[in-house]
Amino acid sequence: MQETPDAPSNVIPLPAAKQPVLEFWFEFGSTYSYLSAMRIETLARDCGVTVSWRPFLLGPIFKKQGWDTSPFNLNPAKGRYMWRDMERQCERYHLPLVRPEPFPQSGLLAARIALAGRTQPWIGDFTRAVFIAGFGTGEDISDVAFLAGLLLEAGAPAKQILEAAHSAEIKDKLRAAVSEAEDKGIFGAPSFFLPNGELFWGNDRLEDALELAASFAED
Questions:
Q1: Which of 118, 144, 203, 204 could potentially form a cystine with 32 if both were Cys, beta carbons 3.0 to 4.6 Å apart?
Q2: Contact by Cβ (8 Å): 5, 173
Q3: Amino acid 1: pLDDT
């Protein structure tokens, strides 16, 4: 699991309750969400911004566009470019990369788990572990036993969280999250929302989103 480096010693962060919040909407089957998930917590801490983890599913949104899979599969040229770009970006960020089989993998259960624990202190570790498994080592991120192991490694109560993830309440909340994403105008992942509701899309806009989010800090 990737470790989050310590914040610079000369940075005195605001108390979390006073920090501006950046919503991070991510999908476990999304390549570029992988890049952002592995970086966002450290970058946000350095900027004095709190991350709100917002797992959701892109599949239902794509289906309304008439797509039954990732646009990177539907457009071969775009897909080839994306995988080469991912190779470059992962080299830049020192991240492992494998092509999942199939692509995209089903992130349904992982998303339910992340939704059940999105405000818990282990959410960052669990989310990064799922992304590393899916895009770094080629594991099956839909496997219940495998995800239980990742929860335990992250320090989460695996049995309790898995029970919650299979509950009608969490299933309804994930459907509601997809609807909220549509209402917000989300069309891809990762997506970021500033405190004023402004949308930024794509891993290459993460730093811009954090910089502007930090400007909402209270004096």
A1: 203
A2: no
A3: 47
**pLDDT tens figures, 14-52:** 556 689 999 999 999 999 999 999 999 999 999 999 999
Distance separating alpha carbons of residues 211 and 189, to the nearest angstrom: 19
Tell me how crowded residue 5 is: count the other CB atoms within 10 A of its CB.
9
Checking if the pLDDT of 181 tops 90, the result is: yes
**What are the structural domains, with CATH classification, of the chain?**
19-214 (3.40.30.10)
Is the separation of the CB atoms in 107 and 28 below 8 Å? Answer: yes
Give the per-residue pLDDT at 219.
53
Burial 33-58 (b: 16+ CB within 10 A, else e): bbbbbbbbbbbbbebbbbbebbbbbb
Describe the strand order of the beta sheet including 21-26 as a list of residue ranges.
50-55, 21-26, 191-193, 199-201
| DSSP 8-state class, residue 28 | T
Cα separation, 212 vs 27, whole angstroms? 23
